[in-house]
Structures are given as structure tokens and as C-alpha cells.
Specification:
Elements lengths: L6 H19 L5 H7 L1 H17 L4 E5 L3 E2 L6 E2 L2 E4 L4 H8 L1 H17 L7 H21 L3 H28 L6
Antiparallel strand pairs: 1-4, 2-3
Helix pairs in contact: 1-6, 3-4, 3-5, 3-6, 4-7, 5-6
Length: 178
């Protein structure tokens, strides 16, 4: 059984997500209010690191969801997870866990929200809740600069292996002559 997607409803949800994002970003002038608004996304982000770290036996040793100011700046670290056994091949799945888990979840929530139609207040509030939760998933899905720094060595190894495999494939099939 296949279902068609109502493009008008989907575009309305995406527009609502964008407007909600802009509205929530306006509160970034007040760091503690901003941290409170983004707490569900931060919680999901850090829990994704924690769950994947446990699955890959990276031995988590600490979790913090309390926002703290970076000294000398007006920026905050909203949360972090520390690991004791994080070698180069465990860094990639642990560092990119929010992207691999929360982004598909956010897409699923947006698509699931398309089942709610109508303009009565109860249904509109359900759509707003769907969009808020999806926005938290999308924002929480993006890896932090620290996450990218952890994943970078493993990404370089994977890109090198992919390039070597690609060159080997074309060399063995006769497309490239050495």
C-alpha cells in the first residue's frame, strides 16, 4: 500500500519549522532562556552520543546537560558526554550519532505530522507540537564542532579507503592503465 504525500501540507510544515527556528533563535540574546528552549534537542543529542558510546563500548564516564559559559566569550556549551575508551574507529559512530539517529527521526516526525489535518485548535496545537519536536530533532542532529573534530581522523581513513577501492576497481576493470 502506497500513500501519496500532500506537498502543500509538507511545505506548510517546513515553513512552520523555519518560522519556529527563527523565532527560537531570537532568544539567543538571553543564553539561559535559549538553553532552556533548546534543552530537548540538547538532551536528545547527548543521549545519542551516550547510547552509541555504550553500544560501541566506549565506556562513558560522564554526562552533563547543565549549560556552562565558555570563558571569555558569550557562548555556552549546552552539554557533553565524556568517554574513557574512544579510539579512532569508535570516534566516527559516536561523534556522528546525533546526525545518524536524530535527523531520520525528525524526518519521520514531519511525515507523521501530515496525518493531522484540519484547522480546529486541537489539531493545530498537535501540528505545532509535532513541528516543535521535529525542530528539536533537526537542531540536535547537527554535530558540534567538537564532534566533527573527533570524527575527522576516521573520516580521512574512510575517504582514503574509498578512494583506494575506487582506483583499484577501475584499474582492475581496465578503465585506468598504470
Amino acid at each position: 500500500m502506497t500513500q501519496s504525500i500532500d506537498l502543500y501540507a509538507l511545505s506548510a510544515r517546513l515553513l512552520m519549522l523555519g518560522a519556529m527556528y527563527v523565532l527560537m533563535r531570537t532568544f539567543s540574546r538571553w543564553p539561559y532562556v535559549s538553553a532552556l528552549l533548546w534543552f530537548p534537542g540538547t538532551f536528545a543529542h547527548e543521549m545519542a552520543h551516550l547510547v552509541v558510546g555504550i553500544l560501541f563500548r566506549a565506556k562513558p564516564v560522564g554526562v552533563s546537560l547543565w549549560p556552562r559559559r565558555i570563558p571569555g566569550t558569550n557562548h555556552f556549551i549546552l552539554g557533553h558526554v565524556a568517554f574513557a575508551n574512544l579510539n579512532w574507529w569508535k570516534k566516527l559512530p559516536v561523534a556522528t550519532a546525533p546526525l545518524l539517529l536524530l535527523f531520520p527521526l525528525g524526518c519521520w516526525i514531519v511525515l507523521d505530522s501530515l496525518q493531522v489535518t484540519g484547522v480546529v485548535p486541537r489539531e493545530m496545537s498537535a501540528i505545532l507540537i509535532y513541528c516543535f519536536v521535529a525542530l528539536q530533532c533537526f537542531v540536535g542532529a547537527w554535530p558540534s564542532p567538537q564532534d566533527w573534530a573527533l570524527a575527522r581522523p576516521a573520516l580521512y581513513v574512510l575517504m582514503g579507503l574509498f578512494l583506494a577501492g575506487w582506483v583499484s576497481y577501475f584499474a582492475l576493470s581496465g578503465f585506468i592503465n598504470f
